[in-house]
Amino acid sequence: MSNYLPVPTYFSYPKDKGSNTHAVLILTDVIGHEATNAQLYDSNSVSFKSDVSLTSHSIADQFAANGYFCVMPDLFEGDPVPLNRPESFDIGTWRQGHGNERVDPIVEATIKEMRSNLGVKKIGAVGYCFGAKYVFRFLKDGLIDAGFVAHPSFVDAEEVKSITGPISIAAAETDQIFPAPKRRETEDMLKDMSVPYQLSLYSGTSHGFAVRADLSQPQIKWAKEQAFYQAVQWFDEHVKS
Question: What positions carry a catalytic annotation?
Answer without folding.
Answer: 129, 175, 207
